[in-house]
Amino acid sequence: MEMSDNKKEFKDPSNLIAWIKYFLCFQVVLAFVAIGSNLMEYQLLTDFQNGVYFSQEMAVADAEANDMRQAVIAFSYLGVFVVSGILILKWIYRANQNARQFGAKDMAFSPGWSIGFYFIPIVSLWKPYQAMKEIWQASQNPSNWPVEKVSSILGIWWFFWIANSVVGQAVFRMSRRAEEISEIMNVNLVSQASEVISIPLALVTWLLIKKVSAAQLAMRDQTSEQQETDEVSDLEPAK
User: Fold this and answer.
1) d(Cα 191, Cα 194) in Å, to the nearest integer?
2) 116 alpha carbon, distance to own chain's centre
3) Cα 213 to Cα 10, 21, 220, distances in angstroms
4) Percent residues over pLDDT 90 in the chain
5) Within a domain: 235
6) Each residue of 197-208: pLDDT tens digit?
7) Membrane-spanning residues where (predicted)?
8) Checking CA distances to 135, which of 68, 100, 200, 218 falls within 20 to 30 Å?
9) Phi-psi region of 53 (alpha: psi -120 to 50; beta: other; left: phi over 0)
10) Does residue 237 belong to any structural domain of this protein?
11) How many domains does the chain have?
């Protein structure tokens, strides 16, 4: 592939990663808010269990206020999570494309499948990791990417991703059948675990995106400089 094609087809991720950073920050802030709200709910449930309330009206009022607060936080977090997820998937697609523009050959995952495997049960446990690993390698050394070593950050990122997914599924399943106060308290504790896990997941995801994007931007700059050097050489008269 000609260097001029690389320059023409490379899609600068700078604006996209800026938006990802903002939404991941929102996500972390909301995770801390959700943890605090869940602690308040757990205390409320403990009071219910211990019979602290002498007035049913006051108990109902506090329960309704808790449910309203939890709902607002949950929907806010869901909205931010969905938007940040869409932005990250767009970045993965673009990062895969950019790696190919730098000359990476025989990549096993197309831009489409690098994000498509996130939505397919079972294979979503390992295929997205393999696709991200390939993007990392091709971004560092596109001419000989299969031999390129990967950073431990990929393993850390995938560990938190799987852990967050598993705990999130547990929260969903437990909440559907929770009826007794003790069961709701267990759901609350698992929800707090999910929120705690989501914080390092967001931070590691950002670090991964930042490193891959930095490698691709450096490659873009190097390619542009080489092209300019070649153009100057072509203009110089032969000796």
Assistant:
1) 5
2) 15
3) 12, 13, 10
4) 84
5) no
6) 999 999 999 999
7) 20-40, 71-93, 113-130, 150-172, 184-209
8) 200
9) beta
10) no
11) 1
Q: State pTM to two decimals.
A: 0.88
Whether residue 232 is contained in a domain is answered as no
The pLDDT tens digits for 222-237 are 876 665 555 545 555 5
What is the gyration radius of the CA atoms in the chain, in angstroms? 24
Asked if residue 174 lies in contact with residue 190, where contact means CB atoms within 8 angstroms, the answer is: yes
- What are the backbone angles phi and psi of residue 29, rounded to the nearest 5°? -60, -45
Cβ neighbourhood burial of 21 (10 Å; 0-12, 13-18, 19+): middle
Structural element, H or E, at residue 25: helix 14-50
Of 159, 170, 151, give the one whose Cα is nearest residue 211: 151
Three-point CA angle 222, 86, 202, nearest 5°: 80
Whole-Å CA distances, 190 to 30, 49, 206: 17, 19, 25
Q: Note whether residue 230 is domain-resident.
A: no
Domain hosting residue 81, numbered range:
3-225
User: Angle CA(143)–CA(146)–CA(120) in degrees, nearest 5?
Assistant: 120
What does the alpha-carbon distance between residue 81 and residue 183 come to, in Å, rounded to a whole number?
26
The encoded tokens of residue 5 equal: 């094609």
Sign of CA pseudo-dihedral 100, 11, 126, 208 = positive
Q: What does the pLDDT average to over 172-180?
A: 94
DSSP 46-115: HHHHHT--S-HHHHHHHHHHHHHHHHHHHHHHHHHHHHHHHHHHHHHHHHHHHHHHTT--S-SS-HHHHH
Residue 157 has pLDDT above 70, yes or no: yes
